[in-house]
């Protein structure tokens, strides 16, 4: 496997702008300690505070805009056009939207963003909160791993730049698709932290060793007694 540096995205999951700003500042790298490489803002903050606040909170940090678009191709393409002013570094759609939706998203990214400011278009495969039983409830009898590889292959063929998956699917995705997909991996739990609603989890170092390009960490940092120290510990672990 190609050696890669795994980078840290901190998920600023809150409705409160001041709280999001505080976490952003606390988790940034400084002269004295390492920190997060990017910030995630998603559905919770965006619905509560709007896109202007997202842009404001992200500031000069690379923005993982995790809105998980999933609609008919025309609507997804138009929505992506509306996001151009956000200057995201990464943007998410759901792979389950199918080939036509993903291809429309690809075309919209290429149309709406200048070449040197195009976000990485990521397709969410199977949410890390789902296990085999949850997948069965949706009518999918395959394992999460089988379904992730199926949707990941579809998404990359339709024009996605990368995939959101759990650490457990990194190896089979690399076997099938090689180094090309950017793999962004939530469901990260440092030893001793609560899984909560996440089902397919690994520690930061395990995810890094498995080949994640980025890991996404929310509550293990934001609910820690000292979020700055929690982010720094993960970043230091990733740096080896
Ligand atoms: O499959 C997915 C896709 C996205 N997420 C997002 O990642 C973070 C994880 O937060 P934790 O608090 O560390 O569980 C969160 O913002 C999710 O929306 C995901 O968990 N799984």
UniProtKB/TrEMBL annotation:
Top-level taxon in the UniProt lineage: Bacteria
SMART domains referenced in this protein's UniProt entry, alphabetically: OMPdecase
UniProt keyword Acyltransferase, yes or no: no
Enzyme class: lyase
Any GO BP annotation: 'de novo' UMP biosynthetic process
EC number(s) on file: 4.1.1.23
Binding residue positions for substrate: 13, 40, 66-75, 128, 189, 198, 218-219
UniProt keyword annotations, A-Z: Decarboxylase, Lyase, Pyrimidine biosynthesis
A Pfam short name: OMPdecase
GO cellular component labels: cytosol
Coiled coil: none
Catalytic activities: orotidine 5'-phosphate + H(+) = UMP + CO2
Active site residues of this protein: 66 (for ompdecase activity), 68 (for ompdecase activity), 68 (proton donor), 71 (for ompdecase activity)
GO molecular function: orotidine-5'-phosphate decarboxylase activity
All copies of domain Orotidine 5'-phosphate decarboxylase, residue ranges: 7-234
Assembly and oligomerization: Homodimer.
Protein function: Catalyzes the decarboxylation of orotidine 5'-monophosphate (OMP) to uridine 5'-monophosphate (UMP).
Membership in a protein family: Belongs to the OMP decarboxylase family. Type 1 subfamily.
Protein name: Orotidine 5'-phosphate decarboxylase
């Amino acid at each position: 496997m190609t050696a890669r540096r795994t980078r840290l995205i901190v998920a600023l999951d809150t409705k409160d702008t001041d709280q999001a700003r505080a976490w952003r500042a606390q988790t940034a790298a400084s002269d004295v300690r390492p920190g997060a490489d990017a910030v995630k803002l998603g559905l919770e903050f965006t619905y509560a505070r709007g896109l202007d606040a997202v842009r404001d909170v992200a500031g000069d940090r690379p923005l993982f805009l995790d809105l998980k678009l999933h609609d008919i191709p025309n609507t997804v393409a138009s929505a992506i056009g509306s996001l151009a002013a956000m200057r995201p570094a990464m943007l998410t759609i759901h792979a389950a939207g199918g080939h036509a939706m993903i291809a429309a998203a690809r075309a919209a990214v290429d149309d709406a963003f200048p070449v040197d400011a195009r976000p990485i278009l990521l397709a969410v495969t199977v949410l890390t909160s789902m296990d085999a039983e949850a997948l069965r409830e949706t009518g999918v009898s395959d394992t999460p791993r089988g379904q992730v590889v199926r949707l990941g292959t579809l998404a990359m063929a339709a024009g996605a730049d990368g995939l959101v998956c759990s650490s457990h699917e990194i190896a089979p995705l690399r076997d099938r698709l090689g180094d090309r997909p950017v793999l962004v991996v939530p469901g990260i739990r440092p030893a001793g932290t609560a899984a909560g609603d996440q089902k397919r989890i690994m520690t930061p170092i395990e995810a890094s060793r498995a080949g994640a390009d980025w890991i996404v960490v929310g509550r293990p940092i934001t609910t820690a007694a000292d979020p700055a120290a929690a982010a720094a510990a993960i970043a230091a672990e990733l740096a080896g």
